[in-house]
Q: What sequence folds into this?
C-alpha cells in the first residue's frame, strides 16, 4: 500500500511531461519556420500585392526586429505572469497576426498591413518562446532536463530547414498559405497545453518599464542598422547612427538595471562565470548556426542550380548531423555537465565548417555532404548544453528571464553575422565576377557595375535566381565566383566557432545539481497526482 502513491504520481506526471514537451515544440515550431518561409514566397507576394523590393525586405525584417526588441521583456513577463499563461498569450498573438498576414487585402495599404502584422508576429514569438522553454525547464527535473531540451532544440531547430521546402510547396497553391499554416499548428499546441494540465506559477512583481523601453529601443535600433547595412551600405550615416544609438541605449539600460529595485534583467547573473561563458559560446556559435540557412540556401540555388525545394533538401543534410548531435549533447550534459559537449561541439563544428569551405567550389553535394554533417553535428552538440546550463543557473528560478537573455544574445549574434558575412559575400563575389567579365573583354568600369548588379540580384529578393540572358560559359564562371565568395563566409563561421571553443575552455566545469526551483519543491509537483493538474491554474 505504501508504494501506491508513488506510482500514482509517477505515471501521470510522465505522461504530462510528454504532452508538455510536444505542446511546446508545436508552439515554437511556428517561430522557427517563419524565420525562413517568407523569403521563399517573396517573389509571389511582390507580384500579387505590387510591393516594392524595399517593402518586401521590411516584411521580412519587421518580424526579426520585433523578435529582437521584445525577447527580454517576454522572458520577464513569463516569470511575473506565469510561464503557461504567457506561452498561451504569445501563441494566440502570433497565430492571430499570422491569419491577418494571410488575409492582407490588395491595394495601396497592403504593404503597411503586412509589415505591421509581421511585427505583431515577432512580438507574439518574443512572448511565447521564452515562456515555452521555461515551461519545459520547470516541468522536467534536473536529471532529465538535458535530454528533454535536446529533443526540444533538435526538433524545433530542424524545422528551420523545413521553411524553404514548406514555403515552396504552399506557395505553389497560394502564398497566403505560408501564414495560414500556423493556425492548425497553434490549435494543436494550445490543445496539448490544456491536456497536459501544466501548473501556472505567477510571481507578482513590479515590471521595469523604463528598462523594457531602453532594451527594446537599443536592440531595435542596433539590429535595424545591422540588417539594413547591405541596403544602406556600411558607408551610410544612417547605418552607423542606428548601430551607435542602439549601443548607447543598451549601455544606459545596463546602468539603469544595476540601480533598479526590480530590474528587467538581474545583471548579477553574469557574475556567474559559467553563465557568462555559456552566453559567450552561444554568441559566437550562433554566428554560424542561424546565418548558414540563408547562405547555404542561396548557394544551392545559384552555384548548384537547385530549385527552392531542392535547396531545402540541401539544408536537411545539415540536420543529418545536427539531430543526433543534439541528442548526444543532451545526454552528455546530464552525465558530465556542459563543458565537455561544448568543447567537443565547437571543435567539431569549426573543423566541419572549415572543410565545407574548402570543398564549396566542388559544385557537387557528393563532395560536401560529410563536411556539412560534421558542421551540423558540432552545432547540435553544443547548443543544448550551453542553453540548458545557462537556464539552470537562473537566480530565484527566473527561467523566463534567463531564457530571454540567451535568446536575445542568439538573435543579436545572428543579425551581426548576417550583416558582416553578407557584406563579405557581396564584396568578394562582386570582385571575382568583375575579374571574370574583364577577362571576357568588358571595360573595367562596365564590368564592375555589371558585377555589382548581378551579385545584388543573386543575394536579394529574387530568392537566389541565377542571372538570365548570359552565355553558358559565363554563367558557369559566375556560379564558381559565387561559390568562392561563399568560401569566405564559411571560413568566417569556422573562425567564430573556433572563438567559441576558446570561450568554452573558460567554463569552470561545475555542474548544477540543484536549481532554485528544486530547493523549493520537486519538478513533478507542477503536476497533480492522478490528473497532472497543478495546484494553481492559469
A:
Amino acid at each position: 500500500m505504501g508504494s501506491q502513491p508513488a506510482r500514482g504520481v509517477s505515471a501521470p506526471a510522465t505522461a504530462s511531461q510528454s504532452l508538455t514537451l510536444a505542446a511546446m515544440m508545436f508552439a515554437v515550431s511556428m517561430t522557427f519556420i517563419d524565420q525562413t518561409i517568407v523569403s521563399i514566397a517573396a517573389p509571389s507576394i511582390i507580384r500579387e500585392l505590387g510591393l516594392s523590393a524595399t517593402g518586401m525586405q521590411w516584411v521580412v525584417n519587421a518580424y526579426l526586429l520585433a523578435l529582437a526588441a521584445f525577447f527580454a521583456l517576454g522572458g520577464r513577463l513569463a516569470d511575473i505572469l506565469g510561464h503557461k499563461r504567457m506561452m498561451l498569450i504569445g501563441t494566440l498573438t502570433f497565430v492571430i497576426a499570422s491569419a491577418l498576414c494571410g488575409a492582407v487585402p490588395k491595394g495601396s495599404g497592403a504593404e503597411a498591413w503586412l509589415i505591421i502584422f509581421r511585427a505583431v508576429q515577432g512580438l507574439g514569438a518574443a512572448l511565447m518562446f521564452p515562456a515555452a522553454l521555461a515551461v519545459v525547464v520547470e516541468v522536467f527535473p534536473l536529471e532529465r532536463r538535458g535530454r528533454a531540451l535536446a529533443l526540444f532544440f533538435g526538433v524545433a531547430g530542424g524545422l528551420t530547414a523545413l521553411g524553404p521546402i514548406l514555403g515552396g510547396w504552399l506557395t505553389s497553391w497560394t502564398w497566403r498559405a505560408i501564414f495560414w499554416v500556423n493556425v492548425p499548428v497553434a490549435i494543436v499546441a494550445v490543445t496539448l497545453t490544456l491536456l497536459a494540465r501544466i501548473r501556472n506559477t505567477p510571481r507578482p512583481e513590479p515590471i521595469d518599464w523604463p528598462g523594457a523601453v531602453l532594451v527594446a529601443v537599443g536592440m531595435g535600433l542596433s539590429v535595424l542598422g545591422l540588417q539594413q547595412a547591405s541596403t544602406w551600405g556600411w558607408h551610410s550615416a544612417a547605418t552607423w547612427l542606428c548601430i551607435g544609438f542602439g549601443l548607447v541605449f543598451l549601455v544606459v539600460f545596463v546602468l539603469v538595471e544595476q540601480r533598479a529595485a526590480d530590474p528587467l534583467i538581474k545583471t548579477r547573473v553574469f557574475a556567474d562565470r559559467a553563465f557568462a561563458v555559456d552566453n559567450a559560446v552561444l554568441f559566437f556559435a550562433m554566428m554560424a548556426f542561424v546565418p548558414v540557412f540563408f547562405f547555404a540556401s542561396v548557394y544551392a540555388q545559384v552555384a548548384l542550380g537547385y530549385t527552392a525545394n531542392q535547396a531545402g533538401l540541401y539544408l536537411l543534410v545539415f540536420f543529418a548531423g545536427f539531430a543526433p548531435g543534439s541528442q548526444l549533447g543532451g545526454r552528455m550534459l546530464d552525465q558530465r555537465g556542459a563543458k565537455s559537449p561544448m568543447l567537443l561541439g565547437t571543435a567539431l563544428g569549426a573543423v566541419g565548417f572549415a572543410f565545407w569551405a574548402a570543398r564549396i567550389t566542388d559544385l557537387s553535394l557528393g563532395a560536401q555532404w560529410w563536411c556539412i554533417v560534421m558542421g551540423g553535428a558540432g552545432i547540435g552538440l553544443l547548443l543544448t548544453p550551453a542553453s540548458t546550463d545557462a537556464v539552470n543557473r537562473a537566480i530565484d528560478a527566473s527561467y523566463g528571464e534567463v531564457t530571454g537573455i540567451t535568446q536575445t544574445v542568439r538573435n543579436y549574434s545572428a543579425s551581426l553575422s548576417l550583416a558582416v558575412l553578407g557584406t563579405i559575400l557581396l564584396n568578394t563575389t562582386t570582385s571575382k565576377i568583375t575579374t571574370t567579365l574583364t577577362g571576357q573583354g568588358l571595360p573595367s568600369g562596365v564590368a564592375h557595375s555589371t558585377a555589382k548588379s548581378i551579385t545584388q540580384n543573386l543575394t536579394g529578393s529574387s530568392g537566389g535566381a541565377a542571372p538570365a540572358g548570359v552565355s553558358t560559359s559565363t554563367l558557369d564562371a559566375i556560379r564558381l565566383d559565387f561559390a568562392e565568395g561563399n568560401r569566405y563566409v564559411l571560413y568566417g563561421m569556422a573562425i567564430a566557432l573556433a572563438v567559441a571553443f576558446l570561450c568554452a575552455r573558460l567554463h569552470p566545469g561545475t555542474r548544477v545539481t540543484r536549481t532554485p526551483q528544486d530547493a523549493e519543491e520537486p519538478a513533478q509537483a507542477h503536476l497533480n497526482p492522478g490528473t497532472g493538474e497543478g495546484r494553481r491554474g492559469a
Notes: The two ends are 34 Å apart (CA to CA).
